[in-house]
Specification:
Number of helices: 4
Distance between the termini: 109 Å
Order of helices and strands: HHHH
Strand content: under 5%
Shape: elongated
Structural class: mainly alpha
Helix content: 55-70%
Radius of gyration: 29 Å
Length: 122
């Protein structure tokens, strides 16, 4: 009797071909490009939110920032940023001023004391 030999078992491991790697890289590149365009078009929002975040971080850290008592900390630095934006014709400084003055207006409208006021009176 003849003996049968079995066929070898072939195990295939999936891997990315160079074409699929290029396709994935192209998708990632387009996604990054779209995200960077969106961030660039919202630069004014990022500047305003960043200024508010820096002020909040300084307050939480306990940094004693100089201020004009009638304006409070946010109002003081918002006014300074607004003046610098006008003098230097800098749109970024104008956006920073928008963020800081928005904080000051919120505190005034909410009836809370302006940030930095000791007595709570305006």
């Amino acid at each position: 009797m003849a003996t049968r030999t079995s066929k070898p078992v072939i195990v295939r491991v999936p891997s990315f071909s160079p074409a699929s790697k290029r396709r994935a890289a192209g998708i990632a590149r387009r996604g990054f490009s779209a995200a960077s365009k969106a961030a660039a078009s919202e630069r004014h929002t990022l500047a305003a939110v960043g200024a508010a975040a820096v002020l909040g971080f300084a307050k939480r850290s306990g940094v004693d920032l100089p201020k004009i008592d009638a304006l409070g900390v946010a109002g003081t630095y918002g006014t300074v940023a607004w003046a610098l934006g006008r003098a230097l014709k800098s749109p970024i400084m104008s956006h920073v001023a928008t963020g800081l003055l928005s904080i000051s207006a919120y505190q005034l409208a909410a009836g809370s004391s302006v940030s930095g006021d000791d007595g709570g009176y305006l």
